[in-house]
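2024-03-11 09:14:02 INFO worker-7 job=invfold-0412 stage=load source=structure_tokens
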């Protein structure tokens, strides 16, 4: 219910938020160490009670002590309008909020009708607003990214752990349930934001075999796919696949295809995984020895894969954020069989760089809504640059005729692209840079070198390699030699098929 109604907006918590501040985890500070036997426990409680009565023997009220401790009981984890404390918020607002409709000059101690001068001490509303803004950004800078649902899952984990502490014989069953909570959250985030058929064709290995195995395991063991062969008993243990709230729009280019929601969802999962890592030693102590491998497997195969979801989820944004198709069309219009060395790069390079500038600007717009952590921005830039570089190679592989001077122009274009791109991003080294450079340089290879190149460079498609043979070597090798090279390409491609 929480996941299907979640709009994946930021739940504002303080920058120093820790799960230990939640009621549900208070027991971790109080619980006795597992080595103390329960039978010896009551003596100490009696002792404490005795001390308490002795303390108030002469006078005073023991119930007043509760009032003193009231603050400890109240949970204070939410940030108020992005501020660390209510005081900070009040200090910014109080100057202008209470009488914000009253004109500034009427709030002054006196009004000089001739000069209209304001008292020296008055602070302009604009200054206060900017102070509010900067405070907000400052405090948001390191606040964890989580949602209302994340907070509720964490609370449930706390309640489960309390049960494990009290009912040790069923600790394993409880941990099994806790692991299912995490499994379902991970599966929901992937289903909502990461599922896409284009991955396989991209050839970028976006989903690791470990993550693929984890997702398959969750789907088989936990998700009710309404299989006709499943028995009622099997289905009773399963839950329906979750559906994304209709309020979440992931198709608009203005919002970078729901990037804010994607960041909140993915990073809240990463945050949840970090909390599970933090709780591992505690869970380990309550676990029976025979069942510890289950816990270890859960951590190594599921919890540790949370951050791996970044690649497929942000790839969808990167694939749509830049118009790679337009670039291919522009490249197709370039004449590459030129007879002189050019000093000016082609227009398609400027168009591509404009797309990257626009992407950078939109990324800045989204970061005003939700903080974009460095690993996220790195993944986004990496995807965009990889896709652009692969599009460049695809464009060069579509060339029908090319001269030495034309190949030199390709190098000039690529160097111009790299030079300007490095000013837009701090990502180093530029991803897939060698992928483009190696392909351009392959034009100059001899027949024997080309055969070796074909065997060593399986990252290029059959079409891209065939183009190298036909266009680059075509003019200076005989038909028999060309057939031999094309047969070598075909041999490489056969195992894939």
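2024-03-11 09:14:09 INFO worker-7 stage=emit residues=497
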């Amino acid at each position: 219910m929480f996941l299907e109604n979640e709009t994946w907006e930021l739940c504002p918590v303080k920058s120093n938020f820790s799960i230990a501040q939640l009621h549900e985890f208070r027991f971790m500070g109080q619980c006795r160490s597992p080595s103390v036997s329960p039978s010896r426990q009551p003596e100490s409680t009696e002792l404490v009670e005795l001390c308490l009565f002795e303390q108030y023997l002469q006078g005073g009220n023991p119930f007043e002590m509760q009032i003193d401790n009231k603050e400890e009981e109240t949970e204070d984890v939410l940030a108020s309008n992005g501020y660390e404390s209510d005081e900070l918020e009040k200090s910014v607002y109080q100057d202008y909020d209470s009488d914000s409709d009253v004109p500034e000059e009427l709030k002054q101690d006196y009004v000089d009708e001739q000069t209209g001068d304001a008292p020296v001490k008055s602070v302009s509303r604009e200054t206060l607003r900017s102070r509010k803004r900067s405070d907000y950004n400052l405090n948001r800078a390191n606040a964890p990214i989580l949602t209302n649902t994340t907070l509720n899952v964490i609370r449930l984990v706390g309640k489960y752990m309390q049960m494990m502490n009290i009912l040790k014989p069923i600790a394993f069953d409880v941990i099994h349930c806790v692991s299912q909570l995490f499994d379902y959250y991970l599966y929901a985030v992937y289903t909502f934001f990461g599922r896409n058929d284009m991955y396989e064709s991209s050839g970028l290995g976006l989903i690791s075999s470990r993550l693929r195995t984890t997702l398959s395991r969750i789907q088989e063991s936990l998700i009710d796919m309404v299989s006709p062969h499943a028995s009622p008993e099997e289905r009773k243990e399963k839950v329906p696949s979750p559906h994304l709230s209709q309020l979440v729009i992931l198709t608009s280019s203005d919002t970078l295809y729901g990037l804010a929601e994607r960041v909140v969802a993915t990073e809240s999962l990463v945050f949840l995984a970090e909390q599970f890592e933090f709780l591992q030693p505690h869970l380990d102590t309550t676990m029976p020895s025979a069942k510890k491998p289950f816990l270890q497997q859960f951590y190594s195969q599921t919890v540790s894969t949370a951050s791996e979801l970044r690649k497929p989820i942000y790839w969808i944004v990167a694939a749509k954020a830049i118009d790679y198709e337009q670039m291919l069309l522009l490249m197709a219009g370039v004449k590459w069989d030129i007879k002189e060395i050019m000093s000016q790069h082609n227009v398609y390079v400027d168009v591509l760089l404009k797309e990257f500038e626009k992407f950078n600007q939109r990324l800045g717009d989204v970061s005003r809504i939700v903080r974009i952590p460095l690993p996220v921005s790195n993944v986004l830039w990496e995807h965009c640059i990889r896709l652009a570089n692969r599009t460049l190679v695809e464009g060069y592989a579509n060339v029908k005729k090319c001269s030495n001077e034309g190949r030199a122009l390709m190098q000039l274009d690529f160097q111009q692209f790299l030079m300007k791109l490095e000013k837009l991003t701090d990502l180093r080294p530029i991803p897939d840079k060698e992928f483009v450079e190696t392909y351009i340089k392959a034009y100059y290879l001899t027949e024997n070198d080309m055969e070796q190149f074909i065997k060593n460079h399986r990252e290029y498609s059959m079409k891209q390699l065939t183009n190298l043979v036909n266009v680059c070597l075509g003019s200076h090798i005989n038909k028999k030699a060309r057939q031999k090279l094309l047969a070598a390409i075909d041999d490489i491609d056969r195992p894939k098929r």
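2024-03-11 09:14:09 INFO worker-7 stage=report msg="The chain has 23 helices and two strands."
2024-03-11 09:14:10 INFO worker-7 job finished
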